[in-house]
Amino acid sequence: MSLIVQKFGGTSVADPERIREVADHVARTRRHGDDVVVVVSAMGKETDELIRLAGAVSKVRPGREMDMLITAGERKATALLCMALHDLGIPADSFTGSQAGFITDNTHTNAKILELRPERLQAALRDGRTPVVGGAQGVSSDRDVTFLGRGGSDTTAVALAHALGAHSCELYTDVPGVFTADPRLVPSARRMSTISFDEMLEMTASGCPKPAMRSVEFARTWGVKLHVRSAFTWEPGTWVQEEEPSMEQAVVSAVVHDTSEAKVTVSGVPDQPGIAARLFRLLADAAVNVDMIVQNTSEHGITDISFTVPHDDLPQSEAITTALATEISASGVSSDAGIARVSLIGAGMKSNPGVAALTFETLAAAGINIEMISTSAIRISCIVRQSQVEQAVQELHTAFGL
Amino acid sequence: MSLIVQKFGGTSVADPERIREVADHVARTRRHGDDVVVVVSAMGKETDELIRLAGAVSKVRPGREMDMLITAGERKATALLCMALHDLGIPADSFTGSQAGFITDNTHTNAKILELRPERLQAALRDGRTPVVGGAQGVSSDRDVTFLGRGGSDTTAVALAHALGAHSCELYTDVPGVFTADPRLVPSARRMSTISFDEMLEMTASGCPKPAMRSVEFARTWGVKLHVRSAFTWEPGTWVQEEEPSMEQAVVSAVVHDTSEAKVTVSGVPDQPGIAARLFRLLADAAVNVDMIVQNTSEHGITDISFTVPHDDLPQSEAITTALATEISASGVSSDAGIARVSLIGAGMKSNPGVAALTFETLAAAGINIEMISTSAIRISCIVRQSQVEQAVQELHTAFGL
């Protein structure tokens, strides 16, 4: 008998029938002899709907009030799931983030967990009850309701698995696991049975939508084994865990793509110390989420700097960059919203210098131009035309025999 | 400058536009120089929708989980109203029942307030902010979320007005005040500008739907002046307050009717001490909400007992009554769902013996048979056929010159 944390995303609890199916699954796990702590997100698209409602009511949306509003969604889901569990003879109690012991900072809409005091959950478990916790929520040191941000339910689940010493943390979603490429683009894409924390992190950072990156970071830090799996087929999915030396190491594990970003380039930048630092400090202070950064080797004392940002942040990024370019007498600023990123992820890459070469050869053979390149020890990312990204993913998936 | 508690019911905040109108009104009150504490109900029919959702998910609905579910509705409304106030430049903070300091017992779905510690609201007021409190909610001594029941937002508002020493408590609703009769039945019905607590209590107990009876009881106990008014026309409504000796006293203030109950009669009951006590103890233990009780004078050692109950409680009441009737050898039990009650309310009735006579004469002249009669110092209620209640209200409204 062990303790398992089971987290169910919005699509998993989208309507009464889905909630009853989730309750069935939790009940099966309990009857199998394991203790369960459940974490739920808001039903279906409810969080989006609440944000839309806020927009219809007011132009200003103070963080404190947005958090009070949005966390109502998870409350509903916890209470309904508890009722469905009672209906199956499984005693269950709902807990808000505050009741579950999540103490956070005061950064509304994107709060950080400072401390977790899960005494009430432990007491419920001792009484043979199943706690159902609202995802992505907590209470600040000012005693206000806080929201951990989109995808925060995964973080709630991993933090609870760590604090309660759970055997593992199951993240139920609407896909059956982590794939070698997006199955909508690559029909032959394969579900991986295991993946290391490092690879999973690179994949989420490179566009793989689930699980939320922050929860993977926490899981890696705390050594919490994740099991990403489907709440629709209930089949085993993908384990995310410490790389085991015995694990057979594929050179490349997966191809990931991302079409959510745009590119900004400052050309003719005087190659002096501190200019890149100033640029990215200005962007950071404006809360622009800069992702990939590439600076070419300097020639003749001038250089180009390119970076990618989410589409929504493009206008602001252009404005900031243009102002700085004028000040430092750079030759110009250009931007491009028609890009996409394709990335190869694989822990085996570290000791295999041929991966980059094969990547570039494959894309070249397909007539796909590479506009930017960035690499880490276990990742190669190429910026290509958005219109060619689907083909790029397919060609690379085949070339690396995934 | 004084402090006013303003409570807005579900129809007053049913959609974004209504929420903005309510914010406008609160802002006007603030700019007039008064401090305001706002209490809101869930938007429109949201509470009904949440209850429907619970029914779709589960056959069992534990009170603790129902309260967690239902209170989500008021949370949303408080946050949205705060945003709309910020939009108008009025700093406002939302508070759950727990944050507002409502400590209750553990009677889920219908909790009673044990204590009110509104320190956070007082601090917000000192800072020049407008607190917006979720109606009908609190936290139990077990630290669970509790719901005060339907109509509980009125109670929240009255309790806050008392605890904060407010000048008055404004209950905003979808009608412009308290009327001498239901305006849908009697087009000439008149809004009363003032009414005493006693009369208001008798009216709510006799079928007048607003304000909630419990809040009127509390207001009377604590001497909180109520102002029942419209959130659609924003015109002054009806003041409910201590009867002032100088107040000109109408003999009869209003005609109220109620079609929500059914009648049960046990006939041929042996007239022995303790039989009525047993019957109504059995019904109370089954949580049947018995309203009007009439026992006729005993003749020849046997008597009839009639009482009214909500339609929903009728089958259970018949079963309980029939079982007891057999045991005590009563001659029979009958029930009737086709009844209605018409009541005359008036503090002036106390010293005016002609009211009962005129009531009975008026109904007789209209050919309306009276099936049961019950009176208090300031009320006369008659049970009549449901099909004749509209006519009864109209005839009495005219006969008493309302």
How is this structure best described in words?
2 copies of one chain form a homodimer. Chain A is of the alpha/beta class and 402 residues long. In chain A, strand 19 and strand 20 form a beta hairpin. The first copy, chain A, contains 12 helices and 20 strands. The first copy, chain A, is 36% helix and 26% strand. Chain A is globular. Chain A has a domain of 172 residues: Acetylglutamate kinase-like (Carbamate kinase, 3-Layer(aba) Sandwich), CATH 3.40.1160. The two termini of chain A are 36 Å apart. The interface between A and B is large, with 39 and 39 residues.
Concise account of the structure shown:
The structure is a homodimer of 402-residue chains. Chain A has twelve helices and 20 strands.
List keywords for this structure.
homodimer, about 400 residues, alpha/beta, Carbamate kinase, eight-stranded mixed sheet, four-stranded mixed sheet, 20 strands, globular
What is the CATH class of one domain in chain A? Answer: Alpha Beta
Structure class of chain A: alpha/beta
Radius of gyration of chain A: 23 Å
Quote the CATH topology of one domain in chain A. Answer: Carbamate kinase
The biggest sheet of chain A, with number of strands, parallel, antiparallel or mixed sense and barrel status, is:
8 strands, mixed
